[in-house]
Amino acid sequence: MATRREWREPLVRQLIAANDGADPEQIIERFADDLRRQAGQDRLPIRPDLIASCHGIRRKRGSYDFAGRIYAEPSGQLVMDINEQDSEERQHFTEAHELIHPAFPNFAKEERYRLDATMDRHAENREEEYLCDLGAAALLMPAQLVANEYSVRAGLSDAERLSVDAEVSIEAAANRLIALADEPCVLLCLAWSHKPADRPALRKGVNVPQRLRVRYGVTNHLNLYVPKFKSADEGSLFDQAAQDDLALSGVATLPGMESAGLFRVEAKRYGADRLERVLAICRPTA
Ligand SMILES: [Zn+2]
Fold it and tell me: What is the model's pTM?
């Protein structure tokens, strides 16, 4: 797992201090494992609703304008609200995400909302939310059950298999495969969008075409910075995958990371409309 050097949010610093300076990613992974084990869940799919009830957390489903939240009632009773309008797999991930929030010291004093239902991950600079996403992935796809059974070497077909077995989105599954990989690898998520520099022209009503751009990337065992909003060249493997129904494989450089050299890339389009994106698992050739 990639190790970060610095954590800034006070709650995350308190978590580190409460755990004798341990790496918060490892603290959260352990917290998720303990929650799951105490609930006797030892095979896929992990059922976050059963984990919640085993830990005495009341779970309510309703129509909300957020994906989920968890809070303590004055009595101390923990309550989790989950948006029933989201897809089943999205609700699973939200439930798992909310179950991680109580890992943080003084959690009960503040309400927390998970608002973004369209993407499976928060930006890394929102540290607590990022760590709850990581914990949700660890809860639903425990290292012990996943690491030897699914691999980045098998590429997107293993991500798809994991997504089915764990009842999570393909994007959550692919992210987890990268996090658990024992070799250098990158996951790129690309989507049709404008870049921030397009905004002034768009405001003036100029028709600026959307391009297939890097939405985010995650890496493991690689010292590589993935710049956002870089566009994939027309005719590139990524661009071709966006037009195709099947996974495409080949050797290519990565958008905005040409100096990092060549990668073995497998790319495929998933989702439709607003949620359409290309996922690519990339491993360095050298
Ligand atoms: Zn959250």
Answer: 0.91
